[in-house]
Amino acid sequence: MARVQDYLRKSKMPHIWCAGCGHGIVMGALIRAIDRVGLEKDRTVVVSGIGCSSRAPGYMDFDTLHTTHGRALAFATGVKVANPSLNVIVITGDGDAAAIGGNHLIHAARRNIGITTICFDNSIYGMTSGQYSPMTPTGRIATTAPYGNVDQAFDLCELLKGAGATYVARSTTYHVPQTINLIARALEHKGFAFVDVLSQCPTYYGRRNKLGGAIEMMNWFKDNAVPVQKAKQMTREDLRDKVVIGEMYVADEPEYTGHYQMIVDRAQGRGAGR
Amino acid sequence: MEVTGVSVGPNIRLMQGNEACVEGAIAAGLGFFAGYPITPSTEIAELLAERLPRLGRKFLQMEDEIASMGAVIGASLAGLKSMTATSGPGFSLKQENIGYAAVAEVPCVVVNVQRVGPSTGMPTSPAQGDIMQARWGTHGDHPAVAFTPWSVSETYSLTIKCFNVAEELRTPVILLMDEVVAHMREKVVLPEPGSVRLVDRRRPEAPPGAGYLPYDPGDGDIPPMAAFGDGYRFHVTGLFHDRSGFPTNDPTVAERLLRRVCGKVEKRRKELAMVEARETSGADVIVLAYGSTARPAWRAVRMAREAGLKVGMVRLITLWPFPAGEVAELTHSARAVLVPEMNLGQIAGEVERAIRCRAPVHSLTLVGGELFTPDEIFQAIKGV
Ligand code: SF4
User: Fold this and answer.
1) B113 three-state secondary structure
2) Residue A21: CB within 6 Å of ligand 1?
3) How close does chain A come to B197, measured CA to CA in Å?
4) Is the ipTM of this complex over 0.95?
5) Overall pTM > 0.90
């Protein structure tokens, strides 16, 4: 097994994430998963949007693409369709993926295109210093929700399952071995794979909401995470304020670029269908 | 290769402007198209949806214009010649990512079949209202290259030109059509296959290794470009970056980057300038027009000549970078310049700057969604 460092651009260290930020843990889990499934460095493209999470590709030694805010999946779709032999991984944050990029997230899932998307989900806009995101729980404080957030948070896993993603999972920065497993499974999956990883932002979410530092926030993940199997036996009321983790949904449906090749064959008068 | 349009002889087709754009793009080596339906550009997407898979190339209908532009950039970075096509409101939506392509130096072609705006405007009526959007649409200073055809045949050749310039300069190139050119049908004489000059982006000469700097222009001003998957493992960002492609806050490096990216286009102003002069020698009034407006304008010039007036025409094919030198030269002897355009005078201002008040510039404007009649322009000529 290669070392994590072998996948990092050491010249870009130290990283710019705050002390205690969960994003390094998620990136570390992604790298370990990449190593476990044996993705070739030269055949792997890591794409991100804008935000704290989206600085991760800069640290990773692959072809890397830092796009405009919310548009990582659109750029990544172009890369994957242009060259389906590439492994395409998208790193995104909760604001990037679910707010400005929500439309692209839904449609990438609908196409079931073979892209693995990892959401570094910290419930806040970190890079712009703590405004509420579509993942900020109702009632929590943010700079733009000084009296408590009135919006409802998304359940991104439910959303993506409904939209057509064929691999959907959730984990947290506390559950590192499980996070690695789930991302590895996502990378090996043929269609659109999505892993939501809850990550702590002690700087702007934890402090303002009096959740403590990184350790307290990770302990909160430990105490409030419910495995998906167990969650099935629980009521809605019991699950309030809990985080369901594990593999939510796996299905086997035609992957987009493979399906597209069949269309090409049909247009050229070859293969099945005509 | 099969070609759209009605065959009227060997290599001669009766085609629509949008069809000619499709054929030009395919001849230029278009490998990837992503778009979102919008009138009056829709036929471009419809035809490519049919043609590209048959050629083993890629067509994608994305969820919106923003996504289309993003996908085009991604596909270009993966090594394919890429294009999108849209109309006014869609062009507005693409602007942020056009700026990205400009600063990240990703070659691509953006076709905008103009319609009346702002906002939803008049979807099926012609206009030339996006001239300044093509120049200054995205935020910040940025390079801009835009061409505009006046005929179906020219649409074909200019589309190829767009790809060549995009690939050579590593920059987005805009084809500004208008509804009239897009939807009219005309004869197109297709060049013999293989006779058209095609340009491909310059690839790095050294094999993958630790030394590749994706934004090092070397002795010139355009860096060679590797594709994702080639093994160079490079970083691309819309942030200001150094030669290695990584973000920088160094004012000197940032300044040098933007000056180079804009300068590579500015410096080739003459090379890019396509301006057509018709009966300009000795003319004391010049009608300066472009796109479909140049058609009634040319008719009006001939009417004026028949009436004994010394009138000539200058037709712009290159809009950006603005061919100021050529315009100044071709209008040198004129005592007045008349600029008819289907907007409120977007190019007239540029002409004024180019000729530096040496002669009065009369702006003749029309924004109601109709084409000028030759007589309207003829009357204006008589009035100057
Ligand atoms: S602001 Fe929050 S998310 Fe961003 S680096 Fe700091 S701790 Fe991490």
Assistant:
1) strand
2) yes
3) 24
4) yes
5) yes
